Q: What sequence folds into this?
C-alpha cells in the first residue's frame, strides 16, 4: 500500500516534549537524515522513516522540503521496501547526487540480514524509480561482513564519481570504503579510504560523509554503537586520503548520522538525527519518535572544523526575556523561564571557576538539568541526573572536551526546544541531548557562577509564531 505523508495526521500539537522549531516526522519513526539537496529555491531533506509506527522497522525514506530552513512541508514518501527484492525489508541510509543532470538516490537495501547498495532516479524529486539492476553493489569486499556494509555517500571529483561506504573490517574496526565509477551506475572497489586506528574510534563506522572544505578534505563518520560523530581533516590526492587532524562533532553520542550538503550560496550545511531517550512505553502513546537537529553550518577556522547553527534561526526569536551585561555570582542567580528558548552567553576571558546554566527546573529544584563549563577540567558537562523524576527516561550525564585558549572568551549558544537541547561552544564543541521533566512547572532557568563573573546573557522565546509550512 502506498502511503502519502501529507495525508498522515500529525500527533497532538500540545505534546510538551515535541519540538516546535526542530523537524519531526508527521507521525511514526524518524532516524538518519538521508539525501539532502537544494533545488529551485527549496531545500529537500529525505530521512529514515517508519510511517506507521513510532518504532524502528519497515524503513522507508520520508521527505520534507523548506524554502527557508525554518518551516518544513511534508512531501510524499520517496522510497518504500519492495518485497522479495534487495530492499525488501528496508531502504536504509544513503545520499543524493545529480548524475548527468538526473536526481539520483543511493541507498542501502536490507533483506534477510544482507546489506547491498541500490539506486533510484527521479525527474521531479517527488516520485522515484528504482534501478532495474539493483543491487548495483551486491557484495562487500574481503574482510567486510555482509551486515557491516552500508550508507553510501556519493560525490563527483574531477570527471569521475566516487562512493564512500561505512563498514567494519573483520567486525573489529570501523572503516570507510572507497569506490569509483565513470557513470554513477557501475562501480569498482578501490580500497579502504580510512580506518579506525584506536579502540575508541569504534567497531563500525556508519553514515560516512567525505567532502572538500577550503583547502582540506573532511571525512565525517558516526561511530557505532552510538559513540558520537568524529571527523578527520586531511588531503585527498591520487584517490588516497591522508588524515592530519581529528576531532569530535557531537560528544557522547547525543546526535548521530550527520549528513552534509552544499547550499546555493556556497555554505556547507549539516543535519543530524537526535534520538528518543525514553522508554518505549512513553513514546508509543505520542505517535512520533525522532528529531532532526537544526541545520548547522560548517567552516574551517584556524585549520579546524567549526560547527554553528545557521543564521536563519534568529528569525524565529520572539520575546526577549533578558538581555545585556550581567554579573553572575553564586548567591543571586539570573533567572528566566521557558521551554522553547534561544540563549546566548559570553563570559569574560580567562575565567578559572565553573559557571552553571540550569534549565527546566521545578520551583523546588527536584527537577533540574545543569549545563556546566569547568575551565579547570576543560569540560563542558550536562548533568541530567535530576532532569526528570520519571525513571523511564535516560538521565545519564554527558560531556565534551573544551579547552579555551589564553585570552579566549567562552561563547555558548543554547537551543532548547521542548525535549530537545543543542549546545554550541564557540563552534569548537557541541553537545546534543533530550530532556523529559515530569512536572509541568519545570520551566524555570537560572545562571550562576562559583565566583563573580562578568558577561553578557540574552534569552529569547522561540518559534511561537513560526507560521504554516512553506
A:
Amino acid at each position: 500500500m502506498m502511503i502519502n505523508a501529507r495525508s498522515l495526521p500529525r500527533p497532538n500539537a500540545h505534546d510538551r516534549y515535541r519540538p516546535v522549531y526542530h523537524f519531526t516526522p508527521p507521525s511514526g519513526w524518524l532516524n538518519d537524515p538521508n539525501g539532502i539537496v537544494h533545488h529551485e529555491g527549496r531545500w529537500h531533506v529525505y530521512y529514515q522513516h517508519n510511517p506507521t509506527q513510532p518504532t524502528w522497522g519497515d524503513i522507508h525514506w520520508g521527505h520534507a522540503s523548506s524554502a527557508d530552513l525554518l518551516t518544513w512541508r511534508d512531501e510524499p514518501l520517496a522510497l518504500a521496501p519492495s518485497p522479495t527484492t534487495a530492499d525488501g525489508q528496508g531502504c536504509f541510509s544513503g545520499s543524493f547526487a545529480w548524475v548527468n543532470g538526473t536526481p539520483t538516490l543511493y541507498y542501502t537495501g536490507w533483506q534477510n540480514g544482507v546489506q547491498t547498495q541500490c539506486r533510484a532516479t527521479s525527474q521531479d524529486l517527488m516520485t522515484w524509480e528504482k534501478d532495474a539492476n539493483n543491487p548495483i553493489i551486491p557484495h562487500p569486499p574481503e574482510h567486510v561482513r555482509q551486515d557491516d556494509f552500508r550508507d553510501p555517500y556519493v560525490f563527483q571529483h574531477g570527471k569521475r564519481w566516487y562512493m564512500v561506504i561505512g563498514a567494519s573490517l573483520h567486525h573489529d574496526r570501523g572503516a570507510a570504503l572507497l569506490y569509483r565509477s565513470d557513470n554513477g551506475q557501475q562501480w569498482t572497489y578501490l580500497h579502504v579510504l580510512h580506518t579506525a586506528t584506536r579502540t575508541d574510534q569504534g567497531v563500525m563506522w556508519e553514515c560516512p560523509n567525505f567532502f572538500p572544505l577550503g583547502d582540506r578534505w573532511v571525512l565525517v563518520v558516526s561511530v557505532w554503537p552510538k559513540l558520537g560523530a568524529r571527523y578527520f581533516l586531511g588531503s585527498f590526492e591520487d584517490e588516497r586520503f591522508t588524515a592530519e587532524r581529528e576531532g569530535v562533532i557531537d560528544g557522547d553520542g547525543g546526535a548521530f548520522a550527520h549528513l552534509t550538503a552544499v547550499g546555493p550560496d556556497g555554505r556547507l550545511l549539516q543535519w543530524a538525527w537526535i534520538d528518543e531517550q525514553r522508554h518505549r512505553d512513553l513514546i508509543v502513546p505520542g505517535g512520533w519518535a525522532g528529531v532532526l537537529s537544526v541545520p548547522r553550518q560548517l567552516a574551517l577556522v584556524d585549520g579546524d572544523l567549526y560547527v554553528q547553527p545557521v543564521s536563519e534561526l534568529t528569525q524565529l526569536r520572539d520575546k526577549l526575556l533578558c538581555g545585556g551585561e550581567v554579573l553572575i555570582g553564586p548567591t543571586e542567580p539570573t533567572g528566566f523561564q521557558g521551554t522553547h528558548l534561544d540563549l546566548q552567553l559570553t563570559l569574560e576571558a580567562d575565567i578559572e571557576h565553573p559557571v552553571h546554566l540550569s534549565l527546566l527546573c521545578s520551583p523546588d529544584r527536584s527537577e533540574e538539568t545543569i549545563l556546566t563549563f569547568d575551565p579547570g577540567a576543560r569540560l563542558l558537562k550536562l548533568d541530567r541526573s535530576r532532569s526528570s523524576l520519571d525513571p523511564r527516561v535516560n538521565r545519564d550525564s554527558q560531556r565534551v572536551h573544551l579547552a579555551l585558549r589564553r585570552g579566549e572568551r567562552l561563547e555558548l549558544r543554547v537551543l532548547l526546544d521542548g525535549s530537545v537541547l543543542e549546545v554550541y561552544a564557540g563552534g569548537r564543541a557541541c553537545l546534543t541531548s533530550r530532556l523529559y521533566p515530569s512536572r509541568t512547572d519545570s520551566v524555570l532557568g537560572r545562571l550562576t557562577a562559583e565566583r563573580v563573573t562578568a558577561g553578557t546573557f540574552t534569552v529569547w522565546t522561540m518559534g511561537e509564531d513560526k507560521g504554516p509550512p512553506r
User: Anything to note?
Assistant: The chain has one helix and 35 strands. The longest strand covers residues 28-39.
